[in-house]
UniProtKB/TrEMBL annotation:
Its EC number is 4.2.1.17. It comes from the Eukaryota. Residues 422-609 form the 3-hydroxyacyl-CoA dehydrogenase NAD binding domain. The keyword Transmembrane does not apply. This is enoyl-CoA hydratase. PROSITE patterns: 3HCDH, ENOYL_COA_HYDRATASE. Gene3D superfamilies: 1.10.1040.50, 2-enoyl-CoA Hydratase, Chain A, domain 1, NAD(P)-binding Rossmann-like Domain. Keywords: Fatty acid metabolism, Lipid metabolism, Lyase, Multifunctional enzyme, NAD, Oxidoreductase. It holds the Pfam family ECH_1. GO terms for biological process: fatty acid beta-oxidation. InterPro entries: 3-OHacyl-CoA_DH_CS, 3-OHacyl-CoA_DH_NAD-bd, 3HC_DH_C, 6-PGluconate_DH-like_C_sf, ClpP/crotonase-like_dom_sf, Enoyl-CoA_hyd/isom_CS, Enoyl-CoA_hydra/iso, FA_oxidation_alpha_subunit. The lineage of its organism: Eukaryota, Sar, Stramenopiles, Ochrophyta, Bacillariophyta.
Length: 827
């Protein structure tokens, strides 16, 4: 596939440094819980067709009232139309409908408190206006009222159980609106202090408190549980515990930086807080985060009996997990602590590039707590650091991305999607197998078809190998493994029954070679055996959808055809571009969006133009890279400058990782498309001649760099000679800032031009597309938030200077000129 292999491999994984080791975890949150895209220490893998390069770069996900946020404001103005939000997911302000207490329902955010004959007060979180429980300022105020009137002075209460009345989870985090709506972030300090005083007030009753957790307990939800004396969680697949504040540029503010390390150890606590990763029940029990793991059906009865036992002394309160000798030497001795913090700082430096302040603040808070173990100063320091982080541009950018991801989950449509039960995938290569894998994992029946059994077998092996890895790493049960494999039916042209199987397919996705003739032939094949409602999606990255869907002898149902452009490797990549042609029905478009969402993708709808959105923006970057090489800027300087800008890899390493042949095809294709002067200014024969020499990049061990090992690379003598010939011997000492501005301006201008031309619907789509498509620095929030931050007027002046000095390829698009003249912002 031509453009399908152009920078499309941004595997968002979290990675952070906990003491001596680097951790990584894929970021894929699809909703309310605090774990979604971009966390401080995110590894972005750029591996077009063959995932090879993995680079650490922050990632954003969620946050909280003082921790993991899960809901987003909806009442701020948008300059462009944005997808509507489900009030249950993203309602900004609590209490849009005034709450009127009744004897049956005294509290808005809690069920009525029940006290058992044994003196156990059962407090159930339950916000009827939302699908999940989230923490808000309003909830915390009501919690104080409820505690004082129902529990604190009640002598009959001998123990307390906190649980949820919702099957969806304990507490998924907090409402981002509470933080983002506060202009003076320093005013958060007394608000958080009030919450802390509430927790201390609870402790002062001196009765045992039990947290009974089913489903997500994230951010502030887990911090609430950490103030309890005993924690019980279920073994449900939906149960996960974590402090993901770092993903939004924040830190745990309800005592999490102090209470978590005290419970699970400094190394375990730092691991959780620096990566923001989720902890599953078995691991939570092993590390001492929870005391018991039970079946969901037993949770309440076990919690009640445990609370009774804690009250009468038959069960002992939870104690911190006993440390091994090695961990005591590391965490509890001055030499060990010195080595530990030195290692942590080096890892944070490496993983964040110094661009994300939150990990450093988390480290600082934990260190402060270790030297101020007594009194409340450590909590004061924590909330002050939280408020400082909330005021940073990095946190604002990461919250913006999280907000955008929530917006992307909803698609405004005049039609409902068809109900899809069975998905057929044509082509069992890397892309097809990946599409089949994510479809099976999300519960679809899958038909995977290729031309022969050998090709089909390779695709089946790819899926099974991925599932085996998940199972061996504890990320998938054997039952789930067997269930996934059972959902996939392998078919080939030699399978006599393949046509019968396809008759029940609701959606067919083709992932075959980039040939218009072949794709139309496949449509003809599919239409002859499927029902009229069946939607056909093409995974092309180069051929216009309109050409594939053009009515003719091969195509009888053009209204059912839509583009679904996945990014490779599909199981890791969060982005999906959905491309309707002018005749695509609303029903087909809505179906593609619904399936992409269920597959766990962040879907962006883009216009049917060459390169669509992500690869279209990449084209000018490739051209400008060639121009800078021609001017004699050393290859290492180009890579270093753009990594410092915040990209996961520099442009030279990117071309090698993608494949010089692929990058050359992309640049050539877009140069002959409709971008005009915007693809000018660089000599792309630089890459074409390298292809002729067989220098295809990392996959051939020789590209711009020579590869001698997994990580070892250098510029060989042949490449030096070739570059000397190409540049005419020129050597440039161009400043790092000029390198960054020249490459970034080409990228940002193309993104703005896509908005101007209606290729993308709004700036939010543009930001999300490039952050998840090519790894545009998450801490900058995407190209449009970046423009707002640096100032559109000054950026246009900068581009005009480049245009005057270097050529018309730098001329800012009309939309940027208009915004600069009017002083408008994109967000």
């Amino acid at each position: 596939m031509l453009l399908n292999t152009a920078i499309k491999s941004l595997a968002l994984r979290q990675s952070g440094g906990a003491a001596a080791r680097q951790l990584s975890q894929q970021v894929s949150c699809r909703g309310h819980c605090a774990c979604t895209p971009i966390a401080p220490a995110t590894t972005l893998r750029l591996a077009l067709d063959s995932p090879r390069a993995s680079v650490v770069i922050p990632n954003s996900k969620q946050n909280a009232f003082s921790t993991a946020a899960t809901t987003v404001a909806t009442d701020r103005p948008a300059m462009h139309k944005v997808p509507s939000k489900d009030p249950g997911e993203t309602s900004g302000k609590e209490g849009s409908t005034p709450f009127v207490p009744t004897p049956e329902r005294k509290y808005k955010f809690f069920r009525n408190v029940e006290v058992t004959p044994a003196g156990v007060a059962v407090i159930r979180f339950d916000n009827p206006e939302k699908k999940v429980n989230t923490l808000s300022f309003a909830l915390m105020r009501e919690a104080q009222t409820m505690w004082e009137s129902e529990v604190h002075a009640n002598a009959a209460v001998r123990s307390v159980v906190f649980t949820s009345a919702k099957e969806s989870g304990f507490i998924a985090g907090a409402d981002i609106f509470d933080i983002s709506s506060v202009e003076d972030k320093s005013s958060l300090v007394p608000v958080i202090e009030e919450a802390l005083q509430f927790f201390l007030r609870m402790k002062s009753k001196k009765v045992p408190m039990v947290a009974a957790i089913n489903g997500p307990a994230l951010g502030g939800g887990l911090e609430w549980a950490l103030w309890c004396d005993y924690r019980i969680c279920t073994d449900s697949s939906s149960t996960k515990l974590g402090l993901p504040e770092v993903k939004l540029g924040l830190l745990p503010g309800f005592g999490g930086t102090q209470n978590l390390p005290a419970l699970v150890g400094v190394q375990g606590g730092m691991d959780m807080m620096l990566t923001g990763k989720d902890i599953r029940p078995a691991k939570a029990k092993k590390m001492g985060l929870v005391d018991l793991v039970v079946a969901p059906q037993s949770l309440e009865s076990v919690a009640l009996s445990t609370a009774e036992g804690l009250a009468n002394g038959t069960i002992q309160k939870s104690k911190p997990k006993k440390k091994s000798l090695m961990n005591r030497l590391i965490e509890d001795t001055p030499p060990g602590q010195y080595l530990m913090w030195d290692k942590v700082k080096k890892m944070v430096d490496k993983n964040t590039g110094g661009n994300y302040p939150a990990p450093y603040a988390i480290v600082d808070c934990v260190q402060y707590g270790m030297t101020h173990q007594y009194g409340l100063d450590k909590f004061k320091h924590e909330r002050e650091e939280f408020a400082k982080l909330a005021a940073t541009k990095e946190s604002e950018a990461l919250i913006g991305i999280f907000d955008g991801m929530n917006q992307m989950k909803k698609h405004s449509s005049s039609a409902d999607p068809i109900k899809v039960k069975k998905v057929a995938v044509m082509g069992a290569g890397l892309m097809g197998a990946g599409i089949a894998q994510v479809s099976a994992e999300k519960g679809y029946e899958v038909l995977l078809k290729d031309r022969d059994d050998v090709s089909l077998g390779r695709g089946i092996s790819l899926m099974n190998d991925n599932w085996e890895k998940k199972h061996s790493r504890g990320r998938m049960t054997k039952y789930q493994y067997n269930l996934n494999t059972s959902r996939v039916t392998p078919l080939s042209d030699l399978t006599e029954s393949w046509k019968r199987h396809f008759q029940s397919a609701d959606l067919v996705i083709e992932a075959v070679f980039e040939s218009l003739e072949l794709k139309r032939k496949i449509i003809q094949q599919v239409e002859s055996v499927t029902l009229d409602h069946c939607v056909f999606a093409t995974n092309t990255s180069a051929i216009p959808i309109a050409d594939i869907a053009a009515p003719g002898d091969e195509v009888k149902r053009p209204e059912n055809i839509v583009g679904m452009h996945y990014f490779s490797p599909v199981p890791s990549m969060p982005l999906l571009e959905i491309i309707p042609h002018s005749g695509t029905s609303e029903e087909a478009l809505a179906t593609a969006f619904a399936v992409g969402n269920k597959q766990g993708k962040t879907c962006v709808v883009v216009k049917d133009v060459p390169g669509f959105y992500v690869n279209r923006c990449l084209g000018p970057v490739l051209v400008e890279t060639c121009a800078l090489v021609k001017e004699g800027v050393p290859l290492e300087n180009l890579d270093k400058a753009m990594k410092k800008f915040g990209m996961p890899v520099g442009p030279i390493s990117l071309i090698d990782e993608v494949g010089v042949d692929v990058a050359s095809k992309v640049a050539s294709f877009l140069s002959n498309a409709d971008l005009g002067k915007r693809m000018g200014g660089g000599d792309i024969s630089l890459m074409a001649k390298m292809v002729e020499k067989g220098w295809l990049g990392k996959k051939s061990k020789q590209g711009f760099f020579t590869y001698t090992g997994k990580k070892d690379k250098s510029i060989g003598s042949e490449v030096k000679s070739y570059l000397k010939e190409f540049t005419g011997g020129r050597v440039s000492n161009m400043s790092e800032t000029d390198v960054q501005d020249r490459i970034a301006s080409r990228l940002v201008n193309e993104a703005a031009k896509c908005l101007e031309d209606g290729i993308i619907e709004n700036p939010v789509v543009g930001d999300i597309g490039l952050v998840f498509g090519i790894g545009f620095a998450p801490f900058k929030g995407g190209p449009f938030r970046y423009l707002d931050a640096v100032g559109i007027t000054s950026y246009v002046d900068r581009m005009n200077r480049f245009a005057h000095e270097l050529g018309e390829q730098f001329e800012p698009c009309q939309l940027l000129k208009d915004y600069a003249a009017s002083g408008k912002k994109f967000h």
